[in-house]
Model the fold of this input.
Amino acid sequence: MTDQPVTERVNALAAEEEDLWARAGDGDGVTPGERRRLEEIGVELDQCFDFLHQRQARRAAGLDPEGARVRPPDVVEGYEQ
Done:
């Protein structure tokens, strides 16, 4: 597997997020359903970026990037920025 499918997913999620925020900026704000979806997008983006960082780190260490795994939300959301 290459990083391309994950990168494409990141791009799709970012576009969806941007669309939701643009609609919210039209004056009606964010509905509860849209707020939940924005939170879901944020978590999934964190998982994607974590996965890509794992793959990059494994490559840099001379390891197979295929050993990287998507970590659960409670793990990636617990990281400090």
Summary: Residues 4-76 form one domain.
